[in-house]
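Project standup — Tuesday

K.O.: blocked on the structure for the chain from last sprint. Re-posting the sequence here as requested.
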Amino acid sequence: MFEYQVTDIFFDLDHTLWDFEKNSSLTFAKILNENNVGVDLNGFLEVYSPINHQMWALYRENRVTKSELRYQRLRRTFDSLGHRIADETIDLLAHEYIEHLSSFNHLLPNTIEVLEYLRPKYRLHIITNGFQEVQSKKLRSSAINHYFDKIIDSETAGVKKPHPYIFELALEQAKVEPHKSLMVGDNLEADVLGAKAMGMQVIHYNSNLEAVHPECITIHDLIEIKTIL
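H.V.: unblocked you, prediction finished:
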């Protein structure tokens, strides 16, 4: 299946292991209700989700800051919904969203089974574009932190996937050559093609229904990894 023997597997976190959409929905249900923000949750999420993806794309390209990301994704959502809301309330919601997000711990299907299967055979690591404090809390609250040897986040690295340096840093910390490593992630550009450009082997976990890349192994359920490795 792979050209070289794999010794180390690097996973993305959000949308790959940690069920970002579900946990985010539960977080918004909590903070919108507690702050008496009168919007329909499903309608809010339908508008928010693509805006959030757009803002993260800008953040990966260093076109917005962390604070701009957190404010603008909410401001643009409420503006699109035609819902008047004060900046002070948006700032409060942005703060509470980050505070409570990692308290929810739903994982994507078959995460634990696959990690249990892989852990005795490979060294496992995380490379994530999230913020250090938040991502660490997610790993702890979902009780999967013990599976991973190295956890590399973009905030600590100073660059975001697909920048080569974050992969270089991960490989250096894990003390593994690129061709002996495997990257598993949901984002074709940031995770898969970014790692592939570094000489790493790759699996695209296509949980976002992106276009299939002809030169990448594609799966639609984590359990498929058991038939590959």
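K.O.: great, moving the ticket to review. The chain has a mean pLDDT of 95. Residues 41-60 form the longest helix (20 residues).
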